[in-house]
Design goal:
The complex is a heterodimer of chains A (about 325) and B (about 325). With about 325 residues, chain A is mainly alpha-helical. Helices cover about 65% and strands about 5% of the residues of chain A. Chain A is built from 12 helices and 4 strands; from the N terminus they run αααββαααββαααααα. The longest helix of chain A has about 35 residues. Chain A is elongated, with a radius of gyration of 23 Å. Chain B has about 325 residues and is an all-alpha fold. Helix content of chain B is about 75%, strand content about 0%. Chain B contains 14 helices and no strands. Chain B is globular and about 85 Å long. Classes of the chains: A mainly alpha (about 325), B mainly alpha (about 325). At the A-B interface, helix 5, helix 6, helix 10, helix 11 and helix 12 of A face helix 1, helix 6, helix 7, helix 8 and helix 11 of B.
């Protein structure tokens, strides 16, 4: 894409983007690490096991319930948690879950918000009225409250929409919720932009040439709204990962025993101050991943649209 | 102006109504969430469950239950399912910590956000700008509960300077109040300072290229005076709007994570607890309370805009 060319010269953005890609690659390699290095799974329990550190055997979880810290060796490289599970393995599998939830949520937000924003802004009238009021409704609902209300409800009951059923511990549940919550923050600016765009000469020209509404939307409006949408995508991804962590910390996101960065940080905070590694390890990974997306997204924004100040609440 | 206010109030009521229905329905959808069963307790006979269902009105159709609940909300005598205490009194009790958190953090993030935004814009492209920009991005990338937990670990456990969470009333002991609030304020405002300074920086840079700024410089005003008196005045408007909304959301239970990690017993923590226990009445009231603030604040900022900037028409 021509507009993205300045991004390549933005070395900071490229470096942090690369950091994010490395984290994604590491998380995708989780099964390899689990099988060949750690020799255990993400949910395997080793409470009563011992591990050899510097030649002598140590309990994975001490008799008074304190898990071992980082061993810096293949087994329990980054320590264990209160159930004697290998944190490094859970970190990678948890990253897969966090990133998967974030990616699906971002896809849902971007797709629905673009669709709603463009159609509402283009057709105006009653459809716009209903859509805008609906968006205002979600928007007035404090984000974390809506997230945990939906999260708790769906985690207990699952989702049942006739043909489409989801069990409560499915990863799609937090992904759907997060994707839904952020829709107005993208749809409103897109709608505002399209409202202005539909009066511009190039749309008028297309219309006077006899183009259908569908053609105008897909060939005139959508390409021109694309940069707004692209600017929002990394922002939504970063916030979706953060919201997943917050929801999981409160027990309304990814359900145990499935790991995610948020559930792992939550487990760690529960055991403070004795086992700080349980908080810091997933916390550092989460911050690095989100920072990578944010710096990259900043570069994308500078390259595409220096005038937008896009913002999404946590 | 009068017409605008009437219209705004009408749409406010509509939004609040819709939000209350939505919240009610979210919890109705839970299949095993029969509140009568939970009110009766584990060792209950089917007869007592049925009796509770009748007296609380759980056997009525959903819309009747909704109306009944809302009637209690407006009369101020709605009780929670689990503790069976008056929800509104409970919220009033939880307000001081939430207000302390929101007001203190709100002032900190507004002042520091504006100061850092101005500083980075004045030094755009320089070392200070780049350093602070990275710091701002780190600020928006750290989850507030992680920052809070690490702050508590370092400054309340390793080096015990501050207390380990909890809340002390302002009137009970002002010094202890301040001591307990410093870490929560720091954790909550870190994120917002990052956001605000960056939004302001972008606005200031945008405004600096406008004609009136060139005119002001041309008539001999100093850079500093132009920046503070002319540029800041027009670029601070969106910041005020943001602040109104974020502040409202924080008061209305939006600081759930901060309140939980510092154990402040505020409105947000009450909401989190009630949601965990599937206790609908408190959640319903807190959500309506929170969105009420958001809607009122957005109307107020619209009016404030028109006062600050006469070019804006109220439609």
């Amino acid at each position: 894409m021509l507009g993205l060319r300045p991004l390549r010269r933005d070395r900071t953005a490229v470096a942090f983007g690369a950091l994010f890609v490395v984290i994604v690659a590491l998380c995708l390699a989780a099964p390899l690490y689990a099988r060949d290095v750690a020799h255990t799974g993400p949910n395997a329990n080793h409470v009563t096991d011992t591990v050899r550190v510097g030649g002598k055997a140590e309990d994975v979880v001490s008799p008074d319930g304190i898990p071992i810290g980082p061993t810096w060796h293949g087994r329990f490289l980054l320590g264990a948690d209160q159930n004697g599970r290998d944190i490094a393995v859970r970190l990678l599998y948890g990253g897969r879950n966090s990133l998967e939830v974030g990616a699906i949520a971002t896809f849902i937000t971007m797709a629905l918000a673009t669709l709603l924003g463009i159609t509402a802004g283009y057709y105006r009238g009653a459809f716009d009225g209903v859509t805008s009021r609906g968006l205002d409704l979600i928007w007035a609902y404090p984000v974390p409250l809506l997230g945990i209300a939906l999260g708790t409800s769906l985690a207990l009951g699952g989702l049942n929409l006739g043909l489409f059923t989801l069990s409560g511990n499915s990863l799609l549940v937090p992904a759907l919720i997060i994707g839904f919550v952020y829709i107005p923050y993208v749809a409103k600016p897109v709608r505002a932009q399209v409202l202005g765009m539909r009066e511009r000469e190039f749309v008028e020209a297309a219309r006077s040439l006899g183009a259908s509404n569908r053609r105008i939307i897909f060939h005139e409006i959508l390409p021109n709204a694309a940069s707004t949408v692209i600017v929002f995508a990394p922002l939504i991804l970063a916030n979706a990962i953060l919201l997943e962590a917050g929801l999981s910390y409160l027990g309304a996101g990814v359900q145990p025993p499935n790991p995610s960065w948020g559930t792992m940080i939550g487990d760690g905070i529960g055991l403070l101050p004795s086992s700080i590694h349980m908080t810091l390890v997933p916390g550092a990974m989460l911050v690095l991943a989100v920072l990578g997306i944010n710096v990259l997204g900043d570069g994308v924004r500078d390259a595409l649209d220096p005038h937008t100040s896009a913002r999404v609440p946590h | 102006m009068a017409r605008f206010i009437v219209r705004r109030i009408a749409s406010m009521i509509a939004v609040l109504f819709a939000i209350s229905v939505l919240t009610f329905l979210i919890f109705q959808a839970i299949p095993n969430g029969d509140p009568a069963q939970r009110l009766a307790g584990r060792t209950s006979t089917p007869e007592t469950v049925a009796a509770i269902r009748r007296t609380w009105g759980f056997d009525k159709p959903v819309y009747d239950q909704y109306l009944l609940t809302m009637e209690h909300v407006f009369k101020g005598d709605i009780v929670s399912y689990t503790q069976q205490v008056n929800v509104e009194q409970e919220i009033v009790q939880d307000l001081p910590p939430t207000l302390s958190l929101a007001i203190g953090a709100g002032i900190i993030w507004l002042v520091l956000g504006v100061a850092l935004g101005l500083l980075t814009a004045a030094r755009a492209g320089g070392l200070v700008d780049r350093g602070l920009t990275v710091l701002a991005l780190v600020g928006v990338s750290v989850p507030v509960f992680l920052l809070g937990a690490v702050l508590l670990y370092v400054l309340a456990y390793e080096v015990p300077v501050f207390p380990n969470g909890g809340y002390v009333g302002l009137t009970a002991d002002p010094l202890q109040w301040l001591w307990h609030m410093i870490l929560p304020w720091a954790a909550l405002s870190a994120l917002f300072i990052g956001v605000y300074s960056r939004v302001l920086r972008a606005n200031v840079l945008d405004t600096m290229s406008e004609d009136f700024v060139r005119t002001a410089r041309a008539k001999g005003l100093s850079r500093r005076r132009v920046l503070v008196r002319h540029v800041l005045r027009s670029s601070i408007i969106p910041i005020v709007a943001l602040w109104g909304l974020d502040f409202a959301a924080t008061i209305g239970g939006g600081a759930i994570l901060t309140e939980s990690v510092f154990n402040l017993h505020g409105v947000g923590q009450y909401a989190a607890q009630s949601i965990g226990q599937l206790d609908v009445p408190p959640v319903l009231v807190i959500v309506m309370f929170g969105s009420f603030f958001v809607v009122v604040m957005s109307a107020l900022t619209d009016i404030a805009f028109a006062v600050i900037d006469p070019r804006i028409r109220l439609a």
